Every structure is written in C-alpha cells, then in structure tokens.
Amino acid sequence: MAWKAINIFFLLFYSAAAIDDSAAMLKLANALHPTPLSWSTKNATGYCRWDGVQCDNNDRVIIIYLDRKNLSGTLPFEISTLTKLEHLSLQHNKLSGSLPSLANLTLLRVLFIGDNKFTSIPHDFFEGLVRLQTFDISFNADLAPWFLSSTITQCGRLVYFDAGSANIMGTIPDIFASLPSLRSLYLSDNNLTGTLPASLANPGIEFLHLNNQKIGLSGTIHVLSSMTRLRSVFLQNNQFAGPIPDFSKCQNLAKLKLSDNLFTGIVPTSLVLLTNLKAVILSNNKLQGPVPEFRTNVQANFSGNNFCVKDAHVGCDQQVTTMLEVASALGYPLTFSDSWQGNNACKNWSYITCNEHDWIIAVNFGKQNFTGTLSSSFANLTRLRNLYLNDNNLTASIPESLTKLTQLEVLDVSNNNLTGKIPVFGASVKLITTPGNSLLESNHASTENKVSPSLIAGLLVGIVIFIALLLFLIFKFRVNKRLGRSRSANVHAEWIVHNEAGYHTSNIGNVVIPIEVLQQVTDNFNENNILGVGGFGVVYKGELHDGTKIAVKRMETTAMVTKGMNGFEAEVAVLTKIRHRHLVSLLGYCINGDEAFLVYEYMPQGTLAEHLFEWRERGYSSLNWKQRATIALNVAQGVEYLHNLAQQSFIHRDLKPSNILLGDDMRAKVGDFGLVRNVPVGKYSLETRVAGTFGYLAPEYAATGRVTTKVDVYAFGVILMEMITGRKALDHTMEDKGWMFMHLATWFREDLICRKKISKAIDEALNPDKDTLATIYRVAELAVQCTCPEPRQRPDMGMVVNILAPLAQEWKPVAAGQEY
Ligand SMILES: Nc1ncnc2c1ncn2[C@@H]1O[C@H](COP(=O)(O)OP(=O)(O)OP(=O)(O)O)[C@@H](O)[C@H]1O
Ligand SMILES: *[C@@H]1O[C@H](CO)[C@@H](O)[C@H](O)[C@H]1NC(C)=O
Ligand SMILES: *[C@@H]1O[C@H](CO)[C@@H](O)[C@H](O)[C@H]1NC(C)=O
Ligand SMILES: *[C@@H]1O[C@H](CO)[C@@H](O)[C@H](O)[C@H]1NC(C)=O
Ligand SMILES: *[C@@H]1O[C@H](CO)[C@@H](O)[C@H](O)[C@H]1NC(C)=O
Ligand SMILES: *[C@@H]1O[C@H](CO)[C@@H](O)[C@H](O)[C@H]1NC(C)=O
Ligand SMILES: *[C@@H]1O[C@H](CO)[C@@H](O)[C@H](O)[C@H]1NC(C)=O
Ligand SMILES: *[C@@H]1O[C@H](CO)[C@@H](O)[C@H](O)[C@H]1NC(C)=O
Ligand SMILES: *[C@@H]1O[C@H](CO)[C@@H](O)[C@H](O)[C@H]1NC(C)=O
Ligand SMILES: *[C@@H]1O[C@H](CO)[C@@H](O)[C@H](O)[C@H]1NC(C)=O
Ligand SMILES: *[C@@H]1O[C@H](CO)[C@@H](O)[C@H](O)[C@H]1NC(C)=O
C-alpha cells in the first residue's frame, strides 16, 4: 500500500513540476522577424509542431533549426531556460543584438550561430556547456572585440570550433590539452596575436586554420611537427618566423598554406616527401636554399622567396650550402635571409668577408643576439681565418671539427653560454673563450703540450666515478623493474618481469607470454570467461594483476594451418608492431604444444555484429545513427592506416562486423588480423588462396583471388549497407525470395539505388529525422561507390575517410569555394 502511495505521489509531483517551454518559445517567436512559418506569436501551446522545432516526449524542446530563414531581430535571454536543448541552428540569418548567455545548457551539443550580425558575446558564454561538440560563430564581424577565454576548457567534448571572421582579439589560450576531441579549429580573419600555444601538440587536430590575422600571430610553428593528424593547415598572412618544421610525422597532411609570413630556412625534405600532399602555398616568405621540387600533382607556389637560384633541379653553391647549415644551427635568423641573396656567398653577403678568389676567409657574427649552437659545418670553410661569435647566446659545445681549419687565426666565442670541453687547437690559433662561458671546461692540453701526471690521475678518478655511477644506475633500474614500481605498470611491464625471471623472449622484440600467466589470468580457461567463439577458436577474457583486461584467443595449430597461417611467429612479430587508435592491439602471443594463443587488448562492448544484429537478445539499446557513422569513420580510419603503413601496405581481407570491436565510448577498432598479409612494396596485388567471408567478398577477389586494398573497400561498403539497413550481408531469412534479396550488396545496389526505396529499407531502429536522413543517403551513396564491380571505380580508404569525417562529426556543409 505504502509503495503505491509513494508512486502516486511521485506521479502527481512530477506532472505538477513538469516544466513547459512555451513561455520561452513565445518570447522567441516574438523576437524573430519575420515570424517563421507556422510559428505563432500569440499562442505557444503547439510549439512542438512549429517548423524547425523538435521536442522530447515531455514536450521539452530539444532542437531548434532555423537556418537561412532571412530572420532579423534578437535572441531573448529566455532561450537559456530551454534546459533540454541539444541543437540550436540559426546560421545564415541577420540576427543582431547581444547573444544571450547560454551558460549551463548542459545538454547542448550543436550550436550554429554563424553568418549573423550579433553585436556582443557574454563573457560566460562557454560556461557549463559540457556537451558542446560543434560550435560555429563564424562570420559575425559586427561582434564587439572579444577574447578566447580558458572557460572553453569546460566544453571538453568539442570536436569542431569555428570562429572565423568573428572579431576576436588577443592570444590563443593554452587550452588544448583539455580538448582531446577537437578535430577542427578555425580562427581565420580575426585579430589574434602572440604565439602558438604548446598544448596544440594535442595530436587530435586535423584542420587548423589561423590565416589572415590583422596584426598577425608570431613565433615559430615548431609545435606543428607533433600534430600528427593534421590534414589542412592555413597560416597565411601572419608574422610567423623561423624554419618550416619537420612534418614527417604528419602523414595525412594534404594542404599547407604558409604564404605571406616570415618563414626562413630551407624547405625540409620531409615536407616534399609527404605522400598525401595536394597543395603547398609558400609564396612571399623568406625561404632560402634550393627551390623545392614537389611531385607534379601537388599544387605548389613558392614565388617571392630568397632561394639561391630561380630554377628547381639546381643545387646551391657549396659555400652557400655551408652557410645555410651554419644558419640552421642558429634557427635561421631572419637577418640572414634578406642580406644573403643569390648563389654566391662572396657577393655582398653581410657578416662575410672573402678573398679575391671568392673563398670565405672571415665570418663575423659578433653581438647579434643569436641563439642556437655553433655549427660543425664551419669546418667546411677551409680557407677560414677569422671567426667571431662573441656576445651571443650560443649553447652546447665547440665542435671538434673546427680544429681541422688549418688557416684559422682567431676564434672568438667569448660572452656566450657554451659548455663541454674545449677542443685542442693548433698553437697558431688565438682562442678567446672568456669572459662568459662559465660552464666551458678548459682543456689543459691546449696550453701545455705535455700531459701532466695530475691530469692522468684526474681522468682515472673520473672514469672510476663514472663506472660506479653506471653500475649504480643499472642496479637501481633492475630493482625497480623487479619490484614493479613503474607507475605505468601495463601489460608489457608485467610480462617483462616474468621474462626476467627466466622465460623465453623472442629475439625479434615481440612479447612471448608464458602459458602459466595466461592460465592464471583466465582462471585456467574457465568457461565463465569465454567472450565468444570464432572461426579460429575460443576467445577468453582475462585480467592481469594491475587490472588491465585482455582477450586471449586460443587456437589449435592445426586450425591455423588449415586457415593458412604459416610462419606464425614471423607474422605475429609484425602484427605486434602495428598500433593505431582504431586497430585492436595485439599485445603478445604464446605457443604451447599444438596450441597457440594470441593476446589482444580487451574491448568491453564486444563486436559491431552483436550491436547491429543481436541487440534485442542481448539487452543492448540499438545503435543510433551518430554512433553508426562514428563507427564507420573509425573503421575507415583504421583500415586507411593499414593500407598506408609507411613501409609496407597491409590488406585486412576479412573485414566484417564481427571483426569490428567496440570500446566503452562506442568507438570502434578493427580487429582480427589473422588473415592480414602484408603486400611487398611496389607490388600492386598478390595472388593467394581466397580467404574471407561470403557476403563481403569483392567479385574480382572471389573469382581470381587477386587481392588489392580495394577488396577491403568493397567489404567496407557492405558493412555500411548493414549499418543502414540493419540486415546481414547474407540474410538467410530472405532465401525464398531469391538470391538477390539474400545477398545484401546486390539487393542494395540493384533494387534500392533509387532513394525512395532506400528510405523503406532503413533499419527500423534508426527512425531518422530529416537531417539524419540526408546523411544516411550520403552514406548509402558511398556504400554503392565502395561496392562498384570494377575495383578501380571504388574510392580508396583515404577518400572514404574524407567523405565520412564531416558526416560523423556533424560538420556544417561548407559552400564550394568558401575556404578562408
Ligand atoms: N579483443 C576482444 N575483446 C573482447 N571480445 C573479443 C575480442 N576479440 C574477440 N572477442 C569476442 O570473441 C568472439 C570471437 O572472435 P574471433 O575473432 O575469434 O571470431 P570472428 O571474428 O567472429 O570470426 P573469424 O575468426 O572467422 O574471423 C568475437 O565475436 C567477440 O565476441
Ligand atoms: C491555443 O491554441 C490551442 C490549440 O492549438 C487551443 O486549444 C487553446 O485554447 C489556445 N489558447 C489560447 C489562450 O488561445
Ligand atoms: C529578407 O528580408 C528583407 C527585410 O528584412 C527583405 O527586404 C528581403 O526581400 C528578404 N529576402 C528574402 C529572400 O526573403
Ligand atoms: C551556471 O552554473 C554555475 C554552477 O552551477 C553557477 O555558478 C552559475 O551561476 C550558473 N550560470 C548561469 C548563467 O546560470
Ligand atoms: C588588433 O588588436 C590590437 C591589440 O592587440 C589593437 O591595438 C588593434 O587596434 C586591433 N586592430 C584592429 C584592426 O582591430
Ligand atoms: C603564386 O602566388 C603569387 C602571390 O601570392 C601570385 O601572384 C602568383 O600568381 C601565384 N602563382 C601561381 C602559379 O599560382
Ligand atoms: C660539410 O662537412 C660535413 C662533414 O664534415 C659534410 O657532411 C657536409 O656535407 C659538408 N657540407 C658541404 C656543403 O660540403
Ligand atoms: C649590398 O647589400 C646591402 C644590404 O645588405 C644593400 O644595401 C646594397 O645595395 C647591396 N649592394 C649591392 C651592390 O648589391
Ligand atoms: C641585441 O639585444 C639588445 C637588447 O635586447 C638590443 O639593444 C640590441 O640592439 C640587439 N642587437 C642586435 C644586433 O639585434
Ligand atoms: C641571452 O639570453 C638571456 C636569457 O634568454 C638574456 O637575458 C640575455 O640578454 C641574452 N644575451 C644576449 C647577449 O643576447
Ligand atoms: C646559460 O645556460 C644555462 C643552462 O644551459 C642557463 O641556466 C642560463 O640561464 C644561461 N645563461 C644565459 C645568460 O643565457
């Protein structure tokens, strides 16, 4: 009885307290001109049915979508009471006045207010917007100047931040360590100043557009070399200086625009070699050295620089090259670029004196405030007599190679901050090291030619101390390992401990895990720990002492042979080296008798197949479209990585939903590399026995056994179809209707291609709204492209990633040519 009473009380209380959004919606309706179609300015009772408005089951507004409605007027502050709001789109209107505070709209995910005429933004604007993913305030040039504040760190889920042409001033705050999901940062056409913050090294950012600042950002762009996921970098029209950094870790980089800055130095080879590069704009800088030679399909412009020669294919003069090496050690100071023109270092170059045969005989860098190090390349200037480096801020040591300069008369390094031993120069050299350089160790041999007994004694004592120290360190290191004191005690650390206790470690560097460890962590392969059964064998769950969870795949070696896994160890050795955010890591292996065990990282949410086809039985909620799109993107990224591995390309050959594993955040990783074969460099395809799963096999692969990366693209297309329709690649329940209906790829391509039909085949669990439907259609088109009968017509995985990325991340559609 009491229980019932409480329930009734609850219900009453609940309905009485239910908040209604009609007051705020009425204010909004009255503030907008013209009143949007079907909206009422008098009676807000029906606001859930107004155009562009969507409510949840309790009539609370969750979406307001009023893009391109030619609206003027203002936004009332009451909008901040719409506490269930998730999506607010007011892009491309003429709204003006102050933006109201949206602070604490904790459910807001998407906020498009770009291309309007707002006049100010409140200082607490980003406060409490903890779910904000997509934010666009671009093209609001009427805003009063404002600053990017560190409260943006509260929006820890930001993916897309666009505030181009929004009248921002001040510096870019050092906040990016708190924004791990950020992929796109657009701040072009503002008045930002200062340097690039160190936390940009957050490796997630792919699109970084900071071009056209009124005064200009300054400093070096060194931080970019650790931004490994960069795709597009626009920094033109700023005051950036120093050399172009090493981009060798940024293999996705496609567009790099650096024009109209003060970049100096030689264009690095690492940039020229990038394989995905499509456009490089370097014009109007202070770049030096030879003209870079990009591949012909790269759009490149490097006019308006200080290259030594006009033509590509021509190297620089040897003394010019040497002086550029010297400049490199000093971080390529700007002063060297303008005052060192042409390809003859003896033609009016400042700081340099030559003899009548155009040999450099003196270099005077005294009192220039240079920082950096003393280059060993000075040794290539064989006629050098005088070298003045005094009164700078040079660090590190005096290179030994300088002693080879036979003509050297004066070397002045006084008033720097040099360290290390002074090399032994000939008696004719006047070496000036003091004042300054307090850390430079004088070398007695340079003043006395005889070696004194005390020096020998000193040396001996030094060596003894050094060895003692070394022994101590080694000892300490070992003890630390034994005790497992390493704070990042991960799986590997644990196995290393075991290995130290005498277990076998493979000489190729991958980790062999003792069978005893596997027995222990799986509770002796207890049935209760079975995660699933696959074509290769049973997969068990295990947990190491430090709590790390693993998945152990147990196979009979005979099964491996029949499945074509020869050279097991060699294969595993390669696979353990492959690490990517969207690939299931192979952590190690073990062979015990005729059984083999592969140990993978544990994926807590199981496989995509379970979530697509068995969610009801397993009591999961069905995947929504956003999750499916993200999973598709993750898979594409993982496979793209496999296809583009620097040294060798890998083909998965057995992509399917049961090989796609999910983490707690529902992000996906591609697993089961059991069938991966690496493609030798330079070979287009290789013929092997067909392996794979019916329903996902590309026709040319099934017919001829020819494997190319396009085999994976085909399978990926089928997976997209499965995610759209919720139907399996081979649906035996359709058998009686004919084989075409059973084979998803055929049915999808030949029956559903017309859009109207696809809409009927969409997975019922999705129940998409209008916007979602549009992206589903786009993905359906992609699925069709991926499954073209002719491999050449299928896009490559890089292209697939490019198409999916905006769809998965709720990007705004960028109008053609609107790149700023
Ligand atoms: N890393 C993992 N984390 C969690 N569960 C896993 C993991 N790997 C596999 N599983 C579970 O074990 C099951 C069997 O996996 P397995 O890879 O052996 O087979 P499969 O992919 O279904 O088929 P095949 O071996 O023919 O490719 C999976 O369906 C999944 O439920
Ligand atoms: C508002 O409109 C609803 C129907 O949409 C109607 O039932 C209600 O009486 C109206 N209220 C007023 C105050 O006009
Ligand atoms: C947009 O609104 C203005 C008035 O604010 C009007 O003059 C103009 O015709 C409208 N344009 C369109 C395309 O509706
Ligand atoms: C947002 O929430 C914080 C903490 O709950 C509170 O201090 C602040 O006043 C709120 N801001 C607004 C505008 O409601
Ligand atoms: C840009 O910002 C600086 C301050 O950093 C200010 O002095 C200057 O007037 C601004 N320029 C423009 C064009 O807004
Ligand atoms: C290269 O850039 C300069 C200035 O930015 C421009 O004048 C020139 O036309 C460009 N050249 C090519 C080939 O695009
Ligand atoms: C300078 O000498 C070093 C070796 O001492 C050599 O590697 C380098 O290529 C030389 N540079 C030029 C321009 O000859
Ligand atoms: C030599 O260089 C200086 C500046 O570095 C310049 O002013 C001068 O015109 C140059 N002379 C010749 C002959 O090029
Ligand atoms: C070096 O720095 C000092 C102090 O900042 C400055 O006065 C001097 O002009 C600078 N020298 C050169 C050559 O830039
Ligand atoms: C060297 O650097 C220090 C600190 O960076 C600075 O205080 C000093 O003025 C610099 N000295 C010269 C000669 O540039
Ligand atoms: C010289 O270098 C040391 C460390 O290498 C540094 O602590 C010191 O500040 C430097 N001195 C100057 C004047 O730059």
From TrEMBL:
PANTHER family: OSJNBA0070M12.3 PROTEIN, RECEPTOR-LIKE KINASE TMK4
Top-level taxon: Eukaryota
Subcellular location: Cell membrane
Pfam families the record matches: LRR_1, LRR_4, LRRNT_2, PK_Tyr_Ser-Thr
Residues that coordinate or bind ATP: K553
Signal peptide: 1-18
Record keyword Zinc-finger present: no
Name recorded for this polypeptide: Protein kinase domain-containing protein
Domain Protein kinase: from-to ranges: 525-808
Record field: transmembrane: 455-475
GO cellular component: plasma membrane
GO biological process: response to other organism
Membrane topology field: Single-pass membrane protein
Family: Belongs to the protein kinase superfamily. Ser/Thr protein kinase family.
UniProt KW keywords: ATP-binding, Cell membrane, Disulfide bond, Glycoprotein, Kinase, Leucine-rich repeat, Membrane, Nucleotide-binding, Receptor, Repeat, Serine/threonine-protein kinase, Signal, Transferase, Transmembrane, Transmembrane helix
GO molecular function, one term: ATP binding
